[in-house]
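Thread: sanity check for a docking pose with zinc ion

Original post by kr_44:
Hi all, I'm comparing my docking run against an independent structure prediction. Below are the sequence and the ligand SMILES. Could someone generate the full complex and paste the structure tokens? I mainly care about where the ligand ends up relative to the chain.
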Amino acid sequence: MRHSWRIGRIAGIDINVDSSWFIIYFLLTWMLATSYFPQSLPSYRGAFYWVISLLTSLLVFASVLIHELAHSLVAIKQGDTVRSITLFILGGVAQITEEPKDPVSEFVMAIAGPLVSFFLGSFFFMLSLLLLGVNDPLLVMISYLGLINIILGVFNLLPGFPMDGGRVLRSIVWKITGDLRKATQIASFSGRAFSFLLISIGIFEILQGSLSGLWLVFIGWFLHSAAVKGYHQVLMRTRLNNVTAEDLMVEDLKTVPGHVKVQELVDVHILKKKERVFIVVDNGKMKGIVCLEDIKTIPRDKWKSTDVNEIMIPREEMEIVSSDTDGETILAKLMSRNIRQVFVMDGNSIRGVISSGDIQRYMQLRSELDKK
Ligand SMILES: [Zn+2]
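Reply from moderator J.T.:
Ran it for you. Here is the predicted complex with zinc ion included:
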């Protein structure tokens, strides 16, 4: 089960903490309190190490948050929507809804995070110079933060998609070739190569008896699946580019009168006609739409007493596109609003319905035909 909590809002972006984040927060604090601080400041006591470590860990994740904010603010400036930034076990991730429109925007957005990390790192290092001989604990803490920010910047610049460096690589190949799909393919390939490298180093470390190798295996595995997923998303987008609602929609929707009971809808219409979506009509006029999923929202013992009118999605609330809307827009609509289907209407007449399942089936058919 995944849980996350909203801890605040910055520039209209929800800041969330995933439950898995507590694991890494604890691990880092534990490592700092039992090894880093006792080694760097041997003359202090146990409780002090824990207090300063809890604080240092918090500042590490504040740095991660600032890195993600840098990406997000650039994205917002470019006209994208950023819903949230979530801190989780592997760091932070910003939910940016639109894919970059051109190579230059992508480049700027990707490089912003590492640049800010480098800036923070240098800032902490300079601060630590001022603290030399003034306050030892603060000095040790600040130089640790400096180091972490530099590492954060460098690691993110590894040229494997979907890391920042991979996005930078993609934007450059995209700029040169003009082909987003090809650029993503190359960046994703390099991302997978890096993930295998990380996994190999991790396994090597484990064989040497160091359990920290597990961590590298974990990160490598995560990057691998993200690289594959990122490529598939782009593939899907480009394939949907020259497809319209007309191609994707399921046509010939059956109608049902609004005043029939839900029980009748199930027995007579759904089970007999083997359909999942019906247009609700009264006096020949379309009033809304009813789907199998709407029926599941009411208990079975209410089926005999509830009208279809009461459970339908009224026309005003239906998500509507026209038959010439392109596939990419439809997919984005389905995904970003988390809705089950969009309806295709030309003027007042309903032409069909499209669910994400319909898009997947279409893509499946297309890719099988492409193989031939
Ligand atoms: Zn980044």
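Residues 67, 71, 113, 156, 164 surround zinc ion (CB under 6 Å). Hope that helps with the comparison, let us know if your pose agrees.
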